[in-house]
Known about the structure:
25% strand; three-stranded antiparallel sheet; disordered N terminus; SAM-dependent_MTases_sf; alpha/beta; globular; MeTrfase_dom; binds S-adenosylmethionine; N-methyltransferase; SAM_MeTrfase_EasF-type_put; eight-stranded mixed sheet
Amino acid sequence: MAPTASVAVQAQAPWPGSDFHRPTLELLPLATQSQLHDIRRQTNEEGLVSQIAAGLRSEEKELPSLLLWNGHGLQLFDAILDSGKYYPAVREPELLSTCMPKIAHSISSGERVIELGAGNMRKTALLLRTLEMQHKHVDYFALDVSRSSLRSSIRELVGLFPWNPKTKIHGLLGTYEDCISWLHSQNDQKSPVTLLWLGNSIANFTPSEASNLIERFFRAGQASTVPVQMIAGIDGCQRQDEIVESYENEKSRNFILNGLDFANNLLGTKTFLTQDWDFCGQWNVKEWMHESFYVARRDLCLNIEEEQFRIRSGERVRAIRSGKWPLFKVADICAAANTSIADTWSNQEGSYGVYLMKSSLH
Ligand SMILES: C[S@@+](CC[C@H](N)C(=O)[O-])C[C@H]1O[C@@H](n2cnc3c(N)ncnc32)[C@H](O)[C@@H]1O
């Protein structure tokens, strides 16, 4: 059993004088070596409501994909992962199980490992175990936007490493953007950073957005004179049948439509009525991505923050994209981020890759 204890965990203010919102003190049944740092610069409500309106104002309507990742959304996503029908949930762990010793060799003892969008952290345990076998100790930070999921995943992870005082496990509550700001603030910490970005989450962005984010992560390290590298798991599948089977089913539908419930919660009104919306998906071969949409079942007029949005019957509003990027596409994205691929591990058919990226910034 893990030596867990109910300890008061202070959500620590990340940097002095920041616009960090009200720090919270909460009781978390975590192991004593774990802390949850709230690094958000603003609350979900503050950030997302204006993004909802901006997305509906744009020519190609979309809602922020962050709407999908509340506590319930993560449970619905776990149901997709466990369904056996979602090929990335099989392919990435299979690849990691063969290449993890080599991946772990690229991480030195004493580093900070920050997992971006850590989710259920099932793959994390394999990395931490492999590092332990290589006699390395790291400070592990799990970044995610859902407090409830962070707490439960960290609790499970800590339970797997009960007697290892060398592997420290922390939670960072916030977005990728918050994490970039937090890294900038860490200029008193000089240990190198490995950013771990698994589950093809990087491809929820367009290629140019992904390049921009990668570059800003590396620049944050550069500003604090901390060496940074990134390890990203990226899906390169191009088989339409597999993609459609994985992304267009009842479980995907539940996961996507939950985004509208979360939007209602944030808005404090029933703006998006369940009966008014359907779900559809589309493999967009030209853009190397699968897209999931909310579809209006009838003509709608939505009132959000004193603005009216008209949506025609059958009109689609993008919920999330999932890029499918083969090696050459990843290389383009890295080049645009002033980053190079230092190593690659891929499965036999080349349909899934894990990439080690290093900065080419001077
Ligand atoms: C596709 S899941 C991947 C989860 C996990 N890394 C895995 O491989 O199974 C994406 C994860 O990223 C988190 N996430 C999504 N957008 C985020 C953002 N902007 N900032 C921080 N985390 C985010 C979600 O809450 C979710 O846990």
